[in-house]
Design goal:
The chain is an alpha+beta fold. It has 14 helices and 16 strands. The strands form 2 sheets. Strands 1, 2, 3, 4, 5, 6, 9, 10, 11, 12, 13, 14, 15 and 16 form a 14-stranded mixed beta sheet that branches. Strands 7-8 form a two-stranded antiparallel ribbon. Helix 7 packs antiparallel against helix 13.
Length: 378
């Protein structure tokens, strides 16, 4: 338990505390027109130490800050044993940060996290990650004037000052780029796409459930291999991967998901999802059976106005070729020909992945949000 001024920070230890932790963001965002409330049943399961996939490879503690008995902030502290294996055991993490605009409150929360990770031998603190770079992550530092796409974070602008005033510095920026131009030269794109596939002797096939089920092991391996050189990469456990696949599979459409094959070997894939956040926002945290049916209809059958390019991965021996363009071109052509979509979000892309950023920009893509991960030595 840590104190700072009139703020008291306490660990969440029971169901009532977890409920307070889950509901606290409504105090911060009730006047924010762009905030998308989390689906509380799903977030509760994700945070549950008995059910959440993260807890196979890590441990976490949740904290609440109070002033005069009223909650004024929250945060999580966690360690990731998979991260320890690949990057050393000196780093602890924080996430799920929310706070009123008061530096004392933020300081008290960060001090509680620092004490918790120091007790576990950590000398460096990194965040926000909820819980990894493949979950919701990063503090929004640019692009506050629009609703986030699915699986993106959102926060008030003053959070950056609360974080840096405690001594955090930038570790890495992750970018969201938008593509809104429907007027590119489709015949030229189709011709180049065909040439690339022919030259590289690979094929693109659309998603279908039996094919994805048959290739689940290949997708799992490729997911972990394709991004192994990226900043902060930690291979997913099979349980984490299965949880992620279970979350997105009901949302998949054949025109938005493709597998890249070299003969019968999977060497790449892309997953683009209809952005359900406008509907999720209206649900205001609830998720009953009717809500699930509404989300399923919006994902599978409703007209598409906006998509998020969630995952695009190519096996490393193939990454020097033009196959990233082939995947993007296939997505773009389908969006223009088969949907009314006028907004494609591609995120999150680490800022040092410059060839990938340049590729999207050549198609008219523009950066519209920046998410920052911070670090500090303890």
């Amino acid at each position: 338990m840590a104190t700072n001024g009139v703020s008291l920070v306490s660990p969440v230890q029971d169901e009532a505390g977890l409920q307070e932790f889950l509901r606290f963001p409504w105090r911060i965002y009730q006047e924010d027109p762009y905030w998308v409330p989390p689906l509380l049943p799903e977030q509760r399961k994700f945070l549950d130490h008995r059910q959440g996939p993260f807890f196979e490879i890590g441990e976490a503690q949740y904290f609440l800050a109070f002033r005069h008995g009223e909650p004024v902030g929250r945060i999580s502290a966690h360690i990731n044993r998979r991260h320890d294996e690949f990057h050393g055991a000196d780093t602890g993490f924080w996430g799920f940060f929310e706070a009123v605009p008061d530096q004392q409150v933020a300081d008290a929360l960060f001090e509680a996290v620092a004490a918790w990770v120091r007790h576990r031998g950590r000398r460096r603190l990194v965040g926000p990650l909820n819980f990894s770079i493949y979950d919701e992550m990063g503090l929004l530092v640019e692009g506050f004037d629009s609703i986030p796409a699915m699986f993106q974070t959102h926060n008030p602008p003053y959070y950056e000052d609360l974080v840096t005033s405690w001594g955090f510095r930038k570790a890495m920026d992750w970018l969201a780029l938008k593509l809104t131009n429907r007027n590119l030269d489709l015949p030229a794109m189709e011709k180049r796409l065909a040439e690339i596939l022919a030259n590289e002797k690979v094929t693109l096939i659309p998603y279908n459930p039996p094919e994805l089920a048959r290739r689940a092991e290949e997708v799992f391996y490729l997911f972990n291999e394709a991004w192994s050189v990226n900043w902060g990469h930690v291979p997913l456990s099979r349980r984490q991967f299965d949880y992620m696949l279970q979350e997105v599979q009901p949302l998949l459409r054949s025109e938005l998901v493709h597998l890249l094959l070299d003969r019968d070997k999977l060497v790449g894939f892309c997953i683009v999802l209809p952005d359900l956040n406008p509907l999720v926002k209206k649900l205001n945290g609830r998720l009953n059976l009717w809500d699930k049916l509404r989300l399923l209809y919006a994902a599978k059958f409703a007209p598409i106005n906006k998509v998020r390019g969630l995952v695009i991965g190519i096996a490393q021996p193939y990454q020097v070729k033009k196959l990233h363009y082939a995947l993007i071109a296939r997505i773009y052509i389908n969006l223009v020909k088969l949907t009314q979509c006028d907004f494609a979000d591609f995120s999150l892309i680490p800022e040092n992945l410059k060839p990938w950023i340049k590729l999207i920009q050549t198609l008219g893509g523009q950066r519209y949000k920046t998410f920052r991960v911070f670090e500090r030595e303890l």
